Amino acid sequence: MKTTQLIFILAIVIGTVCSSATGQRRAKSIKQMTPEQVVADLYRQHQKKSPFFQNKSRSLVDRYFDKALADLIWHLPNSPDEVGPLDGDPLYNAQDMEIRNFVIHKAMVINGTATVLVTFTNIGKKQEVKFLLASRQFGWKITNIKYDDGTDLIGILK
User: Fold this and answer.
1) H or E element: which one contains 44?
2) Distance from CA of residue 37 to its chain's centroid?
3) Beta carbons of 142 and 157 less than 8 angstroms apart
4) Model-level pTM?
């Protein structure tokens, strides 16, 4: 009887430790991420449920973007009847995409700000997108996105 109880208790302890470790890996908060990890996570999220073009989850927008930029994104028109300022995908600065050679480069960090360069080839044309981030209380937040055609996301949204 004691052996059965010991095995049962041991199984519970092992199960708890394993599920806790798995939960911690899954729940890696944005606060713990490096600037390039924030950008990579945004691209992954964009594939599933983009923070752009939706009006159901303000927290999804706030997870990645600093307040000023998050406010602009949140107030984008999301109805088919409304034409908004974005006429393409803001992560690729394009309407049509055939993305190849996608690379997120190591961040350049200076005094609490970071620049993360993303390069890729889209429909045969090499492109660069620069993510500007700032260190905030709850981790790195994107303050603007600059495109290689001289435009930037804040300018487009205003």
Assistant:
1) helix 35-49
2) 8
3) no
4) 0.77
Question: All domains of the chain, ordered by start, with CATH?
Answer: 35-157 (3.10.450.50)
Tell the residue number behind the tokens 């993360």, with chain if given: 116
- Both structure tokens of 91: 């992560």
Cα–Cα dist 72/88, whole Å? 16
pLDDT in tens, 80-124: 555 456 778 999 999 899 999 999 999 999 999 999 999 999 999
Amino acid 110: pLDDT: 96
- d(CA 101, CA 95) in angstroms, rounded, equals 18
CB atoms within 10 A of CB 5: 9
Neighbouring residues of 131: CB distance < 8 A, sequence distance ≥ 6? 35, 39, 115, 116, 117, 118, 142, 144, 145
The span from the CA of 14 to the CA of 20, in Å, is 10
pLDDT digits (tens, 9 = 90+) for 8-40: 444 444 444 443 343 334 344 566 899 999 999
